[in-house]
Amino acid sequence: MGRHQSGSRMLGALMRGLVLLLAVGLVAGAGWYVLHDDATDAGGADCPTTLRVVTASSFSTVVSAAGRELRAAKDCILLDVTTADGRPAAGQVAQLGADVWMPDDAAWATAAPPGLLVPTDKESQAKRDTGAGTTLATSPILMVTDTPTAEKIKDKGNGWLALANLLDAKTPGVRLVVRDPALSGDGLVAAGAVGEAVWLKEGMDSSSLTLNNAMAVTRTVNHDLAATPNEPGEVGLVPEYALLPIMNLAQSRVYLAGADNTALMRYSWFPTAEAARDPKRVAALNRLREAFASTEVRQALNAAGLRGPGQTRPPFEGGSTLPEPTAEPFAVLAAHHVQHVFATWDAEDRRGNLLIAVDMAAPGAGGGSTAPTGGKQSALDVLKAGCRAVGDLMPVGSRLGLWEISPGQPGGYRKLLPSDRLDDTSRAAFTRSVNTLNTHKAGPGLLDTIVAAYQSVRDDWHDDMLNQVFILTDDANKDSTNAQAVAAMVEKLKALQDPERPVTISVVVLAKKDAADRLKAALQPLGAYVDNASSADDVQAAFIHVVAGGLHE
């Protein structure tokens, strides 16, 4: 399994989250929701234990109800509660030394610093002791639109894949409205569902391309109710909990749940590893978790418009207008999937140190003419378009270089543009270099170039971004069939590896699946990604994906 993101890049994302936290003020108005005052009035000053809790703003009234239960009980417990949403929340958990985090979706755990939370990806004593990963409440995301647009979605299959396939500037008419994925689980789960539907059907490269295309026809908002559509053709992605209180005001709209999958927010229970090491705090945390089954907390869930773990819709006037989701829920978004969403919405998540090497033989020179083309475009034109797209998508401050594999040149390649910091001047230079890319006579050079490119990025390694080598080849020289040479290349790459300076290797073979399979098997020990691109869309998807954070699972 390839390394998708370095620890330093995750730290950079966390720091950006902390900056965002200051910018959005945690939630509108007060950033803190603390129960100390109420607790003191009820004699809470005598409570022997205080738990520090960080939770989503849409879940704060539910946590408050649980806090009242614990405060009134024998051996009372106080809750010191902070509300924090989106990417900044993980930073708050760490900064405050919280005992438990209850975000509005389980996917947010991927944003936590390593070691902060009790692991949920494997069975452990700490997980068993604390119930880490338990789902406390849920809320499905619904599509909200006008009747003609709803019919278009139904005609395409009435699901999230249907919506994804309609979100393309090349086929205008359907536009997306979604909350900013960095601000809340509302937006993260909603945007993630669009990409996830394509990922399940066509793979991760196509998912990146779909999200990129959808972004061009998306209106991003900062509040859940603002995601409701304003104009014909818009499809708002809104959580059920936000819709239920306004159902008597929105009878003219059409609501779709998705026939293929259900997009589901999962309010989750994440104790911190530090709290799990203290038996007294574990006991207090378990009492808090058990309080969510009480009558008062269930009533608070209903009032908040949230479903309990049993998935029953809360009773609201007009709520029966909404469709009941019946399709299997999408899985919780994994770290790589979350990164796709963030990289689509935020240019800073596309910051990287990327070296592209292109290997394209001339038509008739050993197979160049069989490479994927884009209609009237030649295979080389398709690659040039992909390179230009990369240059446009990567933000200022990234590093970008371009090599052309050229048999007969020293080392087997030409440096069309040495890696350099990306700004307006270097971006223009990159575009000019892309325009000079050319085909060559089939000959050796691919394997040596992969090694040289890897060493170049390793030596130019930057700890605040993902460091990548991206090779595109038609394997016209059939280097993949030379098992001895390929094995020698792998050994050279192993010798160059530095755990302190990880470099991602991605190879896309054009229209030759057998060659891709051979290279994939050989490079597997290095965690490299190798795939075959059989169409112009495949090539475009690969370029978009590498900018979205690398081609790795």
TrEMBL record:
Q: Which Gene3D superfamilies match?
A: von Willebrand factor, type A domain
Q: InterPro entries from the entry?
A: vWFA_dom_sf
Report what the protein is called: von Willebrand factor type A domain-containing protein
User: SUPFAM superfamilies from the entry?
Assistant: vWA-like (SSF53300)
